[in-house]
Every structure is written in C-alpha cells, then in structure tokens.
C-alpha cells in the first residue's frame, strides 16, 4: 500500500443536537456541546489511517490548546505530522448543528488560511501514491499542490466542498472528483476530460454514481441506522484512497469506500464513527 498525502484543513468541532433549527433571530436550546477533532483534511487522514493507510498530513494549526489537541489526535493514529505547522492564530473551528441525523456546519477557518510560501510541495508529493485535497484551505494552495502532483504523475482526489466557482481547467487536472449531489449541480458541465478518470457523486441513501469512460454506474447505498452523517463524505474519500493505493479497481474501491462511509454514520462524531479495516472487511463479506 502506497503513501497517502492529505493536504487540507485541521479543525476542532463543536457540536450540539437540536430538536429543530432556529429561525432568524431565534434562540433555541441544544443538548450538551461535544468538542472533538475535525476538519475535512484531518478527517480524511484519520479515515485512511484507521483503514491501514500510510498517511502524511499537511496542514496548519494555531499555537493554542485546540491546536495541541488536534496534533495529539493525529499522532494517536500514527499519522506523519512532519508537515503540520503552527501559527499565532486560532485553530480552525467548525460549529455543527445536528437535527434528526442530519447536520448544518459553519466553519471559521482561522489557521487554515495561513499557509506559508516555503512549503516544499515537490518533496512532499513526489513520494506519494495519491494526494487528497478539499476546499477548506486557500485555493492557491490547492492549485499549487495539484500542479505538482500532475508534474509527478501522482493521482489526486478532490472533494469540492465547500463548493466554489472552480476553473474548468483546474477540475480537468483532478484524477478523481468526489462531489455530493448538491456540489455536483454547481460544477461546470462536461468536466470528465483531461486527467479526470472518474466523477464519483456521493448521494447519501441513494448510494454513489460512478461516471467514467465506460458510462454511468450506480452503486447502491448500504442499509444502516444513521445516527450522525458528519464526516461520512470524508470517510468515503479516505477509504477510497486506501482502496486505490491497495490496487483495487475503480468500482471495487467505490464499494469499499461506500461501506466505510455508511458505517461511519452509525456512531455520533466524525472521527469516532470512522471504521477500522476489519469492520469493513467483515461487512463486505456479508
């Protein structure tokens, strides 16, 4: 299994459960707040590491208590944090409002926006087997990392969340695009060109649509009791990278990732719910 380089956000999540979302100007009571490590980049790194991936995390944290906790958490999963840097800003925070198994998320990026100019992307990416990226860090950093990956012939996975007006030329450099249904509708048409081998549209209870040179294929969702969908997309991306670097075919990698994402929703908390490899293999056998 090759090295998985994750370039992205590192946050701490503050989550609470609500009976109903507040209207404008309204105050509602939530359940006790839960503080836990998060951020799309860190989530993908942990998801891949829990499934046996050899993971390198590249990201920014604040020189504060939240940053120390986030770094310790990554270390606990044996993730290489050599390229995680601290700055004198607040560590990124995500406020998560849960309602009946679904969620709404507000992100305050903090240190995630403070990337230095001297990061040696050539050195970091050249030894990778795959690179994972998301859109919670400056686009200039993402674009630079993708260009370096293309130069070295390293496949990339890009989760376009939060969705933005991405240049078509940039999207066509990505090997695997992994939007959800909402994000997919906001992407340009006809992006399955250039370096892009597959578009993987995650659709929750409707499974995953795989669009590649052979056409469109729907892979059914896994039937589970959903308790918390936070981090399911990140789990999918991390698991997909593990499967691809392990030599699985595209469709088998999607099935593996689909199983992992489904299992991640059966527990409360993004990283807590992410399954280990033995959990996935047992369920795939069934």
Automatic annotation (TrEMBL):
Binding site for ATP: 180, 202-207, 233-234, 258
Pathway stated in the Swiss-Prot or TrEMBL entry: Carbohydrate metabolism; D-ribose degradation; D-ribose 5-phosphate from beta-D-ribopyranose: step 2/2
SUPFAM superfamilies reported in the protein's UniProt record: Ribokinase-like (SSF53613)
Active-site positions on this chain: 234
CC cofactor note: Requires a divalent cation, most likely magnesium in vivo, as an electrophilic catalyst to aid phosphoryl group transfer. It is the chelate of the metal and the nucleotide that is the actual substrate.
Transmembrane parts of this sequence: none
UniProt name for this protein: Ribokinase
Organism encoding this protein: Listeria newyorkensis
Native organism taxonomy: Bacteria, Bacillati, Bacillota, Bacilli, Bacillales
């Amino acid at each position: 299994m090759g090295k998985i380089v994750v370039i992205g956000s590192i946050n701490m999540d503050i989550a609470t459960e609500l009976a109903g979302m507040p209207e404008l100007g309204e105050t509602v009571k939530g359940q006790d707040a839960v503080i836990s490590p998060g951020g799309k980049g860190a989530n993908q790194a942990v998801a891949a590491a829990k499934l046996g991936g050899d993971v390198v995390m590249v990201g920014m944290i604040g020189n504060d208590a939240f940053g120390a906790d986030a770094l310790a958490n990554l270390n606990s999963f044996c993730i290489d944090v050599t390229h995680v840097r601290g700055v004198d800003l607040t560590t990124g925070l995500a406020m998560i409002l849960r309602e009946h198994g679904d969620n709404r998320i507000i992100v305050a990026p903090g240190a995630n926006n403070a990337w230095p100019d001297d990061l040696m992307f050539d050195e970091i990416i050249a030894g990778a087997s795959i690179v994972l990226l998301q859109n919670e860090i400056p686009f200039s950093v993402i674009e630079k990392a993708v260009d370096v990956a293309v130069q070295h012939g390293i496949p990339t996975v890009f989760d376009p969340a939060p969705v933005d007006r991405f240049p078509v030329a940039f999207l066509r450099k990505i090997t695997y695009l992994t939007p959800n249904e909402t994000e997919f509708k906001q992407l340009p048409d006809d992006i399955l060109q250039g370096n892009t081998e597959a578009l993987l549209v995650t659709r929750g209870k409707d499974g995953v649509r795989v669009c590649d040179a052979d056409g469109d294929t729907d892979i059914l969702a896994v039937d589970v009791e959903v308790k918390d969908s936070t981090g399911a997309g990140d789990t999918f991306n991390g698991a997909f990278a593990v499967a691809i670097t392990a030599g699985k075919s595209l469709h088998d990698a999607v099935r593996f990732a689909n199983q992992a994402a489904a299992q991640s929703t059966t527990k409360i908390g993004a990283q807590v719910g992410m399954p280990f490899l033995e959990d996935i293999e047992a369920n795939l056998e069934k």
